[in-house]
C-alpha cells in the first residue's frame, strides 16, 4: 500500500506562504528542486529580511555552500565528484540532471566536473536573492576565486595541513602564489594565510581591498609595500623582514605622493627605531600635543570587530606632506603601526580609541 501524499502546492497561497516560512534554508532549497512551480513559490514567499549570510568554501576535499545565522553555521550543499557519491535520486539544475542525496547535515550533489557543479551557487543566489559574503579557498580550489571573489565581502586563502603525526601548514607553490596575486581580487577584506615558498618574489600590482592581511610576508619588499598602498586602505603584515631603514625608504616615497590609498599599516618590523624611520625627514615634521585617533568607519560598519579605533599617544612628532596629509608611527604590541590622515583636522585630537598605542622607545646604542 502506497503512503498517502500531501498536495502541498494545492494549498491556498496564504497557507502555503506561512508554511514555507516555517522551513529552514536547507528544506527550502530541496523544495525548490521539486518543480518550476515550487521554485517560483520559494522566490516569491521566502522572507527576504531574515538575517543570514552565505559562504562558499573549497579548502580540502570538495566545495561546500554554507549559511550562517547568529551563533550558528550549517552546511547547505556539498558538491562531490561522481566517484564520491552514489545518489539514489536525481534532480535537474541549470540543465544538468545529477544524483542527489539528503544527509542529516546537508544536501549532497554529484557532478562529473566540480567546476560545473559549483554553478549551483548561481542557482542558490537567484533563489534567495543573496550573494556569498565569504569565500575561503585552498590550493586545489584557486579557480573558484575568478567566480566569486568580486561578489564576496571577505575572501580568505587558506593553507592545508600535512598528514599526521607531524601536521604542519603546507606552503603554497610559486605557481599558486602567482595565480592568486594576478587574480586581482576585489573584495573589502582579503586574508592570506599560509607560507610562501622560500625565495619567492613578486613585482606586480595587487587587488583592491579595504583591509588586506598577509600572515607570512617575509617576501614583501619596499616596492611591494608601495604597490599595496596604491589599492589597499588598511594593511596588516604579520611577519616580514623589513627594517626601520626600509620603512624610512617607504615614507620618503609616500612623501612624493605615492601609495595614496593607504591609511594604516601594521607590520612586524626588525629593530624599530623612530630616528631611523624618520631620518632625513625632520624638516617635514610637526608635533601634535594631544592624542590622535585613527578609525576606518567604513570597515567597522561592515565587519564586526574590524576597524577598531587606534589611539596614538600624545606628544608625537608626525610627518606632514605638502598636500596636508599626516603620517604618525607608534607601537601596537611588538609591531610598528603607521596611521595616515588626510589633514591635521581629521586626526581627532584628544579623542579616545579602543587600542592604546605606545610611543617608540629607541633601543640603547651598543
From TrEMBL:
Q: What is the lineage of its organism?
A: Eukaryota, Metazoa, Ecdysozoa, Nematoda, Chromadorea
Q: Superkingdom, according to UniProt?
A: Eukaryota
Q: What Pfam families does this protein map onto?
A: F-box, FBA_2
* Protein name, entry field: F-box domain-containing protein
Residue ranges of the F-box domain?
A: 5-49
**InterPro entries, sorted:** F-box_dom, F-box_Sdz-33
The record's section on PROSITE patterns has:
FBOX
Amino acid at each position: 500500500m502506497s503512503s498517502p501524499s500531501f498536495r502541498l502546492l494545492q494549498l491556498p497561497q496564504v497557507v502555503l506562504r506561512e508554511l514555507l516560512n516555517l522551513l529552514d534554508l536547507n528544506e527550502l532549497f530541496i523544495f525548490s528542486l521539486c518543480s518550476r512551480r515550487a521554485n517560483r513559490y520559494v522566490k516569491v514567499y521566502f522572507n527576504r529580511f531574515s538575517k543570514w549570510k552565505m559562504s562558499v568554501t573549497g579548502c580540502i576535499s570538495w566545495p561546500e555552500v554554507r549559511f550562517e545565522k547568529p551563533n550558528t553555521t550549517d552546511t547547505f550543499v556539498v558538491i562531490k565528484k561522481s566517484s564520491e557519491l552514489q545518489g539514489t535520486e536525481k534532480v535537474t539544475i541549470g540543465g544538468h540532471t545529477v544524483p542527489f542525496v539528503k544527509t542529516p547535515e546537508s544536501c549532497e550533489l554529484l557532478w562529473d566536473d566540480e567546476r560545473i557543479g559549483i554553478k549551483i551557487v548561481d542557482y542558490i543566489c537567484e533563489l534567495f536573492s543573496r550573494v556569498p559574503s565569504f569565500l575561503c579557498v585552498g590550493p586545489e580550489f584557486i579557480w573558484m576565486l575568478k567566480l566569486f571573489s568580486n561578489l564576496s565581502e571577505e575572501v580568505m586563502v587558506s593553507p592545508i595541513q600535512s598528514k599526521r603525526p607531524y601536521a604542519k601548514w603546507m606552503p603554497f607553490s610559486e605557481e599558486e602564489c602567482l595565480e592568486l596575486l594576478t587574480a586581482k581580487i576585489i573584495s573589502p577584506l582579503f586574508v592570506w594565510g599560509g607560507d610562501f615558498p622560500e625565495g619567492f618574489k613578486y613585482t606586480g600590482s595587487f587587488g583592491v581591498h579595504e583591509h588586506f592581511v598577509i600572515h607570512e610576508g617575509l617576501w614583501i619588499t619596499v616596492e611591494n609595500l608601495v604597490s599595496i598602498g596604491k589599492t589597499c586602505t588598511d594593511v596588516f603584515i604579520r611577519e616580514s623582514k623589513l627594517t626601520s631603514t626600509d620603512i624610512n625608504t617607504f615614507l620618503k616615497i609616500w612623501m612624493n605622493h605615492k601609495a595614496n590609498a593607504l591609511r594604516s599599516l601594521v607590520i612586524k618590523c626588525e629593530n624599530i627605531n623612530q630616528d631611523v624611520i624618520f631620518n632625513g625627514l625632520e624638516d617635514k615634521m610637526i608635533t601634535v600635543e594631544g592624542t590622535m585617533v585613527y578609525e576606518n568607519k567604513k570597515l567597522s560598519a561592515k565587519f564586526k570587530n574590524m576597524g577598531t579605533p587606534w589611539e596614538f599617544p600624545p606628544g608625537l612628532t608626525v610627518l606632514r606632506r605638502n598636500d596636508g596629509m599626516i603620517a604618525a608611527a607608534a607601537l601596537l604590541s611588538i609591531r610598528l603601526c603607521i596611521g595616515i590622515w588626510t589633514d591635521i583636522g581629521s586626526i581627532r585630537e584628544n579623542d579616545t580609541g579602543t587600542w592604546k598605542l605606545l610611543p617608540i622607545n629607541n633601543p640603547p646604542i651598543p
